[in-house]
Amino acid sequence: MSILVFLEHHGNELQKGALGVLSKAAQLGAGDVAAVVVGSGVEPLAAKAAEHGAETVYVADDPRLEAPLPQPRVDVLAQLVAEKGIESVLFAQSILTADVAAALAARLEAGLNWQLVDLEAREGTLVGKQSALGDSVLVDVGWRSTPRLALFRAGAFDPVAAAAAGTVEQLEVRLEEHSLTAEMLEQAHEESTGPSIEDADVIVAGGRGLGAPEGFGLVEELAKALGGAVAATRAVVDAGWYPYAAQVGQTGKSVSPGLYVACGISGAIQHKVGMQSAKVIVAINKDPNAPIFEFADLGVVGDLHQIVPKLTELVRARRGS
User: Which one, of 242, 152, 260, 225, lies nearest residue 190 by Cα?
Assistant: First the structure.
């Protein structure tokens, strides 16, 4: 059985979630595991990928791949699947990989399972685990044919260093003409200077209940005291209160921290799908009937403008003692 893991990167860093998926694939012991890094000037990243369980790391390094556009990456993956006989392609969930995985599934007429939380090898094939009924149960999902495509929830797996490093192989990049018709004119950079919400173990998130953009000062202070990152709902991002890079939800990022503190967030389904896999969810809201209390582990009913500063003060006092 052959498995290929797509390794997304930003700047000069491979994404933690992608390395986690690679580590999981290697731990299955189900066959040959390879990874692919796509971009411009990305060859230095291959060595790190080789240290996380990939027997072979394919490098598609070409100036035409510099912009994070999906179609050129689909070309690279389709080429690899055809030439190497890849049976399974795995992705860690992000906005880019969702586009790439969906387009690759259409190109190859392949089956794609998404929002997976685990994977196992069973009787010579792969079986995915997907949460259902509000994360109360796990169900088995499979594929009727190969190649199998799988998209895993953010934070599903942690990266684990392998005992021995794999080899690196350069790819000849061949792109379809139609894949080069789109051009990225400008790329917005993250405005946040704090930790990435995708990697943070603690996240403090703010919603419309903050009342105004200035309310995020309370969220930022609590996040700083906890050593965590700041997140936001779509409503406040759309209103211009906080950068899009911090948005959690269906049209933002999916996160899986150890602790998620929701301040002034009602808990709409669009937001829930992005943070419901957090290990502990704490909700602070003045509305006792807010939907978020239905799935929060701890709910605090009250004015967040009074509760959050006191909580920040207590955390600082505890950490300072």
Answer: 242
Q: Cα angle at 280 between 227 and 212, to 5 degrees?
A: 60
For residue 115, name the pLDDT band (cuts at 50, 70, 90): confident
Beta strands 298-301 and 280-285 are parallel
Query: Which of 103, 107, 79 has its CA nearest to residue 91?
Result: 103
pLDDT in tens, 252-286: 888 889 999 999 999 988 898 889 889 999 999 99
Instruction: Residue 220: give the domain boundaries.
Output: 202-320
Do both 304 and 225 map to the same domain?
yes
Q: Which contiguous run of DSSP H or E holds residue 38?
A: strand 32-39
d(CA 72, CA 284) in angstroms, rounded, equals 44
pLDDT given at position 273: 82
Distance CA 119, CA 79 (A): 25
Q: Do the beta carbons of residue 249 and residue 236 sit within 8 Å?
A: no
Q: Estimate the crossing angle of helix 304-320 against helix 216-226, to 10 degrees.
A: 20
**Within-domain flag for 240:** yes
Name the token pair of 143. Answer: 């594929």
Residue 194 has pLDDT above 70, yes or no: no
